[in-house]
């Protein structure tokens, strides 16, 4: 049986013709026929083309004029597609061709005409295009001989409408728009998903000899229940209205979008992340405190106080140092701190207790300082640890979070597609109103990341294209990223478009030939490689700020004490002058 259909519905002119058709269908040993029916023109024939059997075979005898009218209604109802395999019988094929010339037989239809001794495959590229007829077999009353069917891979320059989303790329009117979109040296970080999808479809142009005419929109478009359709002026709205067959920008798969379009085989994994310069431990206010734990520092300060108290106790005993030394507590503490800072002893004592205390104090300070100094040197010579490796740690860090200002990023944060993304938005990006959310321009955001203290969310290729051009080698080595989303994206084709199967096959050819991989490497920039730092990490002012603050406090205290001493001295001089004056008055 022709096409090995499992279901045959026949529109025959007489009962005898129906019996002959069934007899012929069941004679072959290889027949897969399971269901058959003979229909009349006045029956509810529409149910035939809504059958769930696949494929459905339908036989039309064009010798009856009413069958031609039924075929015309089927065509007008857009039911001539690959799901319905149709065989038309007309002994004089020229009569059938003349009638079918005025009927829309879509590019993806399965319509054949059975004439005297020959079978012809029929289709049109467009409703206004001429009918294309290819001989596909011969037959007689004894056997059927089928030839290899010619592939439908030449659209003869037909123009297919498409729609592409451009949000940031500014097209110049004096230059061809298509050339600007395909030029990957022209702002390659802008609208990568759209330009990559457009580039892939340009490969299909060469493969199938057609031409894409496209319009640009500002957004992909999302279904709005309040409106009952997709956002006006968007790519999916154009597909919904039938103004475009192809959605040329790579898109995410939503259930609402599946109602109006088909997604072709996936083209690219869409990966988003936060990028930031990891804060250096040498840029932290607590850098000097990092070598020791809080317990170690507490124990060290307790030892200093204890040593100061013991030294004061020894010096205030009846036996005096020879030569004499200051026995105050402040002098003892100053001596201990100097020893701990590896400055040695600046006093001299002949007392055995003082010397024993000093020796063991120096041993303790030597051991503590050795570990402290070794840790500080280690911070300078070893790679700095990058401990901000999750979105929770990034949110809790002092780093300010921003996101690239693109519409699909906003849907990521508000669409509940990932717990991580939602958490980042709610805790770090969300503002008092949607207009005040932390969304910024890509170039501005990268400049803020370069300065440090900022993390930017975006599509990795967009981010790294700009970073590769603007960051130095050492800045690239300091980069860290936290992956947020990894989703497949692809382009779409309108439902009931006759070019769906052709597009599917074309994309698979482009993928298998390696062209898709080549375009992917060209358009999607990978993370810049760290080829080694140009120099060692410098200690920033934050790390030394504690020492500077201590010095400023000391200077201020010294000035205060100086003014205090000056005031006391002034009072002493005044009192001394009064005493001299009184003495002189006594002897006058």
UniProtKB/TrEMBL annotation:
Subcellular location: Cell membrane
Residue ranges occupied by any Ionotropic glutamate receptor C-terminal domain in the UniProt entry: 296-474
Keyword Transmembrane helix in annotation: yes
Gene3D superfamilies listed in its UniProt record: 1.10.287.70
Superkingdom, natural source: Eukaryota
Any single Gene Ontology cellular-component annotation: plasma membrane
GO biological process assignments: detection of stimulus involved in sensory perception
Keywords recorded for this protein, A-Z: Cell membrane, Glycoprotein, Membrane, Receptor, Transmembrane, Transmembrane helix
Predominant place of localization: membrane
Membrane topology: Multi-pass membrane protein
Keyword Cell membrane: yes
A molecular function GO annotation: ligand-gated monoatomic ion channel activity
InterPro entries referenced in this protein's UniProt entry, alphabetically: Insect_Ionotropic_Sensory_Rcpt, Iontro_rcpt_C
Chain segments annotated as transmembrane: 295-315, 359-381, 545-564
Family indicated by similarity: Belongs to the glutamate-gated ion channel (TC 1.A.10.1) family.
Annotated protein name in UniProt: Ionotropic glutamate receptor C-terminal domain-containing protein
């Amino acid at each position: 049986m022709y096409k090995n259909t499992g279901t045959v519905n026949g529109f025959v002119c007489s009962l005898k013709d129906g019996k002959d058709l069934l007899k012929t269908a069941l004679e072959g040993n290889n027949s897969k026929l399971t269901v058959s029916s003979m229909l009349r023109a006045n029956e509810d024939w529409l149910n035939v083309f809504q059958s769930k059997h696949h494929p459905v075979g339908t036989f039309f005898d064009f010798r009856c004029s009413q069958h031609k009218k039924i075929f015309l209604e089927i065509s007008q109802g857009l039911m001539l597609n690959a799901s319905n395999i149709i065989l038309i019988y007309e002994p004089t094929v020229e009569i059938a061709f003349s009638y079918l010339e005025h009927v829309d037989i879509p590019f993806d239809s399965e319509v054949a005409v059975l004439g005297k001794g020959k079978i012809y495959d029929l289709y049109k590229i467009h409703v206004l295009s001429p009918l294309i007829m290819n001989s596909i077999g011969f037959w007689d009353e004894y056997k059927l001989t089928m030839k290899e069917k010619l592939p439908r891979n030449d659209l003869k320059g037909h123009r297919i409408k498409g729609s592409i989303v451009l949000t940031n790329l500014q097209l110049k009117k004096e230059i061809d728009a298509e050339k600007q979109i395909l030029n990957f040296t022209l702002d390659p970080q802008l609208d990568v998903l759209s330009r990559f999808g457009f580039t892939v479809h340009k490969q299909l142009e060469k493969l199938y000899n057609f031409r894409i005419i496209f319009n640009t929109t500002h957004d992909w478009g999302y279904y709005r229940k309040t409106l009952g359709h997709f956002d006006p002026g968007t790519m999916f709205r154009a597909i919904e209205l039938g103004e475009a067959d192809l959605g040329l920008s790579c898109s995410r798969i939503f259930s609402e979008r599946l109602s109006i379009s088909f997604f072709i085989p996936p083209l690219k994994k869409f990966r988003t992340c936060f990028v930031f310069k990891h804060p250096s431990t040498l840029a932290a206010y607590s850098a000097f405190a990092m070598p020791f734990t809080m317990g170690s520092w507490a124990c060290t300060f307790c030892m200093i106080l204890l040593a100061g108290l013991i030294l004061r106790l020894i010096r205030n005993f009846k036996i005096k140092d020879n030569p004499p030394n200051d026995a105050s507590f402040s002098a003892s503490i100053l001596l201990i701190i100097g020893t701990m800072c590896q400055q040695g002893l600046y006093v001299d004592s002949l007392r055995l207790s003082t010397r024993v205390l000093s020796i063991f104090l120096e041993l303790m300070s030597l051991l503590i300082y050795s570990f402290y100094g070794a840790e500080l040197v280690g911070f300078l010579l070893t790679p700095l640890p990058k401990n901000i490796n999750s979105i929770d740690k990034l949110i809790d860090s002092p780093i300010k979070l921003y996101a690239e200002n693109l519409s699909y990023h906003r849907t990521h944060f508000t669409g509940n597609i990932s717990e991580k993304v939602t958490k980042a938005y709610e805790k770090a990006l969300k503002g008092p109103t949607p207009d005040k959310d932390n969304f910024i321009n890509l170039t501005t955001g990268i400049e803020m990341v370069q300065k440090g203290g900022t993390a930017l969310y975006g599509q990795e290729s967009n981010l790294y294209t700009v970073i590769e051009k603007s960051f130095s080698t050492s800045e690239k080595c300091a980069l860290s990223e936290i992956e947020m989303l990894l989703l497949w994206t692809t382009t779409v084709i309108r439902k009931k478009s006759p070019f769906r199967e052709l597009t599917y096959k074309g994309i698979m050819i482009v993928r298998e030939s390696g062209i898709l991989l080549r375009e992917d490497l060209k358009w999607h920039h990978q993370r810049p490689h760290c080829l080694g730092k140009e120099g060692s990490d410098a200690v920033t002012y934050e790390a030394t700020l504690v020492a500077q603050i201590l010095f400023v406090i000391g200077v201020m205290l010294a000035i205060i004490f100086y003014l205090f001493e000056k005031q006391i001295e002034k009072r002493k001089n005044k009192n001394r002058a009064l005493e001299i004056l009184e003495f002189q008055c006594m002897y006058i």
